Amino acid sequence: MKRRTFIQATAAAGLAATTAPYRMALGEGTSFSVDKAIVIGAGIVGASIAYKLSKRGCEVLVLDKIGPAAQASGNSFAWINASYFDMPDSYFQLRTQSLNEYHRLADDLEIPIHWGGSLEWYHSTEQEQEVSAGIQLIQVQGAPAWMVDAAQVAEIEPGLDLMGNWKAAFCSRDGAVDPAGTTRALIDGHAWHGGSIIAPANVSSVDEGPDSITVTTDVGEFNADLVVVAAGVGANDIAGMIGLGTDLIRPATPGIIVTTCPMDRLLNTVCYTTDSHFQQLSDGRVLIGEKAGAPQTEQHNLLLTGLPNAYPTAELAADHAERIIDTASRYVNSLANAEVESVGVGWRPLPLDGLPTVGHVPDTPRVYLASMHSGVTLAPIIGHFAAMEILDGVRVSPLDDFRVERFL
Ligand SMILES: Cc1cc2nc3c(=O)[nH]c(=O)nc-3n(C[C@H](O)[C@H](O)[C@H](O)COP(=O)(O)OP(=O)(O)OC[C@H]3O[C@@H](n4cnc5c(N)ncnc54)[C@H](O)[C@@H]3O)c2cc1C
Fold first, then answer.
1. CB of 186 closer than 6 A to ligand 1?
2. Does the residue 291 lie in any domain?
3. Does any ligand 1 atom lie closer than 6 A to the CB of residue 44?
4. Which long-range contacts (CB under 8 A, 24 or more apart) does 57-61 make?
5. What is the mean pLDDT of each run of 10 residues along the chain (408 residues)?
């Protein structure tokens, strides 16, 4: 029996886990039971938390002002990795645990993941030395990562031109997922376990009472024992609604992601270099991004007001896609023949110090916050730990360095 079938069978037989068997066992979590939860945000982070809560028998409603993967999660480069250089060890461990959790999740929900590792290289001696020093740091932390020369790169990635005789960092554990497809799979899994979703539903207020919490939207009012805020770049708005201030995350920065139609396999690894990054999904589509941000012109500033995820015209989208594909095809010639499936603009939800913010909000314990960049990498482990904290009433120590308290 496949794992997913087994889970379905146990759930159908009423064997799904019940909530809070160990509530307050450690004496440092919340003191109320959570049988009913609302998740604000159907990006990959909210979807993962909703899935894990529903799977454990909690009654969960997801609310989103647009729909699943409509914002950052649908417009992400989606490199899943624990190979950032110079990270605090707790962050390195969290990312590593999430990669492990991805293997379990892929099995549970039949999510295709391309596990080919990553190559990162730059076009100056100084940057090459920086990357090499970074690799030494993450080796100490336990990462399966090392420097490879151009000949070794040619073996790993035969279709790649490094544009010079450079050394690259190779991180063998990294992978690539379809961020929108994974988000939808999580929402489907949540629904399979009895969860529901209402979208569009724009949240305008969140009010905590002594015994419950109320969420007001443009389509009605909803009550629950607890609200999870996984609103991506909307985190500051919701933080403002609960009196937490409105600067949990930095002003969002945009990134353009071009998705090609499926192509024959061109790439084994996620590739990241000076002016371009690209990776090929399991189904053959290639995601391509660029390093440059939008030029600070008056026209750009006007167009980018309101954080749009799409271009105002098809011509403008095609122009940007052409430039991004041209740059990438200098490294992988066959990309010059790519047909464009979509061009999206993603906005990065980046907490003030760059690290995730996760957990119950002090003084508003019926609100649980989950806000982060690298949310595609982190979603599986955040879903897992959030479900433990919410349903079991405990504090999970791997999240200790990522609490909202550090900003208060
Ligand atoms: C260009 C780009 C490249 C990236 N590359 C990577 C990468 O390689 N690897 C990686 O791990 N991460 C990467 N990231 C970051 C990653 O994509 C995000 O951290 C992640 O998608 C955040 O997920 P989320 O669920 O928190 O937010 P989102 O996906 O933005 O979801 C938040 C949801 O909340 C909803 N919402 C907001 N406000 C309200 C409201 N008031 N009422 C109702 N609903 C609301 C929105 O509609 C949205 O659907 C990248 C991001 C970008 C933009």
1. no
2. yes
3. yes
4. 57/16, 57/17, 57/18, 57/19, 58/19, 58/34, 58/387, 58/390, 58/391, 59/35, 59/194, 59/195, 60/36, 60/190, 60/195, 60/196, 61/37, 61/195, 61/196, 61/197, 61/198, 61/222, 61/224
5. 34 37 48 94 98 98 98 96 89 97 95 96 97 95 96 98 97 97 98 98 96 97 98 94 84 90 97 97 96 75 78 88 96 97 91 93 94 97 98 95 91
pLDDT digits (tens, 9 = 90+) for 289-347: 998 766 778 777 777 777 888 788 889 889 999 999 999 999 999 999 999 999 999 88
Q: How far is 39 from 53, CA to CA, in rounded Å?
A: 10
Q: Which residue out of 376, 377, 378 has the highest number of ligand 1 atoms within 8 Å of its CB and is therefore the one to mutate?
A: 376
Pair 200, 228 in one domain: yes
Please tell me the distance between residue 309's alpha carbon and the centre of ligand 1 in angstroms. 11
Q: Are residues 194 and 277 in the same domain?
A: no
Written as six digits, the tokens of 240 are 């403002």
**Helix (H/G/I), strand (E/B), else coil: 400:** helix
Please tell me whether residues 221 and 366 are part of one structural domain. yes
Closest protein CA for atom 12 of ligand 1: 374
Ligand 1: residue whose CA is nearest its atom 5: 77
Same domain as 206, residue 227:
yes
Q: Which of 64, 217, 256, 355 to mutate to test ligand 1, by most ligand atoms within 8 A of the CB atom? A: 64
Range of the domain at 20: 16-75+180-250+352-407
144-189 pLDDT tens trace? 999 999 999 999 999 999 999 999 999 999 999 999 999 999 999 9
User: Of 39, 48, 61, 77, which is best to mutate to test ligand 1, by the most ligand atoms within 8 angstroms of its C-beta?
Assistant: 77
| Cis peptide bond prior to 88, omega within 30° of 0 | no
Q: Whose CA is nearest to atom 53 of ligand 1?
A: 346
Assess whether 337 and 258 both reside in one domain.
yes
Same domain membership, residue 331 and residue 199? no
Distance 349 CA to ligand 1 centre (A): 6
Indicate whether residue 63 lines ligand 1 (CB < 6 A).
Answer: yes
The response to whether residue 79 sits with its C-beta less than 6 Å from ligand 1 reads yes
- Statement: the pTM of the whole predicted model exceeds 0.90: yes
